[in-house]
Amino acid sequence: MITIAEADEVLRHLPNEFDSHDFIEKYLTVFERDYVNMLINNIDSTTIFRTVNATIGRFLSNNQETLNIRKITRTDSQNVRGNVTDNQYWRKYHER
Question: Does the global pTM surpass 0.85?
């Protein structure tokens, strides 16, 4: 499971406005082993990547205040599997 400390580290590498796919891609780069473990922990899901990525998105949503981010709008962008899908667009409200 993603932690506040991991999310803070990922956010340091992202611009002031980003979408969930940007966050997930950077998380995968910085914490590859943790992302793979999340996939393995959901091996029984028929939509493993969607399940894990939705979990990360909910984490961001549930921890907006702690992470100093806010939802802006919805957007379409390429996910880690190369498909263009709908996801949340975010803004940092304090410089990290």
Answer: yes
